[in-house]
Amino acid sequence: MLLTVIASLMGIQATKSGWTLVWNDEFNRSGLPDPKKWGYEVGLIRNKELQYYTERRKDNARVEGGKLILEARKEDYKGSKITSASINTLGKFTFEYGRVEVCAKLPKTLGSWPAIWMMGEDRPIVGWPRCGEIDIMEHVQHDPATIYATVHQPKDGGGHQSKGDKTKVTDYADAFHVYAMEWKKTGLEFFVDDRSYFKFPYEGPSKWAFDRKMYILLNLAIGGAWGGQKGIDESGFPCRMEVDYVRVYKPTP
């Protein structure tokens, strides 16, 4: 109730058909991301990416002008030549089933790989892919104007399987778009600006890793197994992903 009242006072859509706002960040502050809402990944993390993810460093993650800025920079830092940021809600906010909306503008530097995604909070216990992964939005600049949504989970007999789809957003770097996902017991559905383009239906417990609380991640990667397939434009730094808001809705009882 309190969040709904606050949202109303701020002019935020606290309810929509079938959904009620339960968590959000409008980035209406200056400085570092709100530590009550966001933590950090730190270091060289995955996928042979080149960036060193820093912690509590305004050069890479900051809030200014009502936007979250995740910025990748070409600089020497702890053995890496590039720095960037990956923030997440692990240990601060997790949920099971709901609708996630992230309003964002993406970079256009070759080699950039921004992502809006989720993983199960039990990842440290059960590992990946058993924890499940929901990629709400991924973009690689060597495939410009293409937005990807993908789900990852265990494969029968071991290993990993994924399924996804893609859609076109021609002005991804010039305008903000709402990248959204609805997560229900009946399946997952992905949207850009309320336009549905990928559905992943529930097909039984052995084919569904998304029966657990999950947390949100926002990151800007550089290079790596996918992002760096056609090289990196070193003249394109600094580059940034801008986020206007993150909102999570739960099904209205």
**Topology, number of strands:** 18
CA radius of gyration: 18 Å
The coarse silhouette is globular
- What is the helix content? under 10%
Number of domains: 1
| Shape-level CATH architecture | Sandwich
Largest sheet: 11 strands, mixed
CATH topology: Jelly Rolls
| Helix segment tally | 3
The end-to-end distance, rounded to whole angstroms, is: 13 Å
Give the class-level CATH name. Answer: Mainly Beta
Mean pLDDT: 94
Give the ordered list of helices and strands. HEEEEEEEEEEHEEEEEEEHE
**Strand composition percent:** over 45%
**Structural class computed from helices and strand pairing:** mainly beta
Unreliable stretches (pLDDT < 50, length at least 5) are: none
Give a brief rundown of this model.
With 253 residues, this protein is mainly beta. It is built from three helices and 18 strands.
Notes on the protein architecture:
Helices cover 6% and strands 48% of the residues. It has helices at 2-9, 123-126, 224-227; strands spanning 15-16, 19-25, 39-40, 51-53, 61-64, 67-77, 80-84, 86-88, 98-105, 112-120, 133-138, 146-154, 160-168, 177-184, 187-192, 195-201, 214-222, 239-251. It has one domain: Sandwich (Jelly Rolls), CATH 2.60.120.200. The protein is built from 3 helices and 18 strands. By secondary structure, it is mainly β. The strands form 2 sheets. Strands 1, 2, 4, 5, 6, 7, 9, 14, 15, 16 and 18 form an 11-stranded mixed sheet that branches. Strands 3-8-17-10-11-12-13 form a 7-stranded antiparallel sheet. The longest helix is centred in the first third of the chain and has 8 residues, at 2-9. The protein is globular, with a radius of gyration of 18 Å.
